[in-house]
Amino acid sequence: MAFAAAFSCVPAHAASPEPFGWIRLAHFSPDTPAVDVYLYSYGGHTADFVLDHVAYATASPYEEVAPGIYTVAMRSAGAPATSAPVISTTVTVAADRAYTIAGLGPLDALTLDVLDDQLTAPSGKTEIRLIEASLRDPAVSITASQGTAPISIRFPAVTGYTPVASGVRELALATPGGSAQVRMDLQQATTHTLVVLDSAGTTPRLLDLTDAVGTAAIPRGGVQTGLGGTAGSARPGVPVAEDVLWAAVVLAGAGIVVFAGRRLRGYAG
After folding, report:
1. How many structural domains does the chain have?
2. DSSP letters of 197-265?
3. Fewer CB within 10 Å, N or C, the chain?
């Protein structure tokens, strides 16, 4: 099964006079309805950034933020900004570090996890980690190439990063209900988060989030498109890569997932 991807990653530029880190927000809870996701400076009541109607299987581009403590709150899609969040958490952002804050698990045990994203890989290697976000296929293993040990994971969980040889690889995705071959071009010095998602077919979908490209690259989102997926769009104020493409990768057919962002006033609750 072919895996096609298109993305844009912004290379490093001259150092900014002020340090910064990056935050990426994601919804990976299979039975949780769409949510609005709010980002606040810790203790503040004005939202720095809001993502509207974030559905399952979507992730935002990275948002550049100053180092410090932030609150991330999820509310039901369309709920007033003054309403109580469904769930919230805090994240401490360090300079030159990147984080993914993801809603994980089933609705009745929903968590909002802060993941430390790795931005470098050893020479000649690619680093990959897995997020198991499929209720239909709660046990999955992925083998990066022949002769390597499979990476196994159960819902809901996140692995650490594993180094694999760079190059075009046939990833073997296996579940109790079926298997699939996923062709990926794992370029040197890249890091990837692979998210296992529910699908209507016999094998799960796989979403590839490119965390970083090259040791001198600045992370800028990196949700990949493939097999008919197209780039999303956003309202003014959303950092769409500058030109990052973002949509869900669907292994068993084409699909499009889009959400938008805005900057406005809100309340952490």
Report:
1. 1
2. E--SSSS-EEEEEEEEESTTBPP---B-B-TT-------TT---TTT-------TTS------EEE---
3. N
DSSP 145-184: STTS--EEEESSEE---EEEE-EEEEEEEEETTEEEEEEE
Q: Provide the pairing of β-strand 205-213 with 162-165.
A: unpaired
- What distance in Å separates the CA atoms of residue 152 and residue 170, rounded to the nearest whole number? 17
pLDDT, tens digit, for every residue of 21-35?
A: 999 999 999 999 999
The amino acid sitting at 125 is K
* Burial (CB count within 10 angstroms: exposed 0-12, middle 13-18, buried 19+), residue 14: exposed
Distance CA 247, CA 181 (A): 21
User: Are 102 and 60 within 8 A, CB to CB?
Assistant: no
- Residues 6 or more apart whose Cβ sits within 8 Å of residue 82: 266, 267, 269
The residue behind tokens 């991330």 is 72
69-107, pLDDT tens digit by residue?
A: 999 999 999 999 999 999 999 999 999 999 999 999 999
Q: Is residue 218 part of a domain?
A: yes
Residue 82, domain member (yes or no): yes
The residue written with tokens 């068993």 in the block is: 252
Q: Which of 4, 26, 3, 31 is nearest to 198 (CA)?
A: 31
Dihedral (Cα; 233, 64, 166, 124), 10-degree rounding: 160
Q: Rounded to two decimals, what is the model's pTM?
A: 0.78
Identify whether 68 is part of a domain: yes
Residue 33 lies in a domain: yes
50, burial (CB in 10 Å: exposed 0-12, middle 13-18, buried 19+): buried
Tokens (6 digits) for 207: 């979403």
The CA distance from 177 to 264, in Å, is 45
Please give the pLDDT value at position 17. Answer: 65
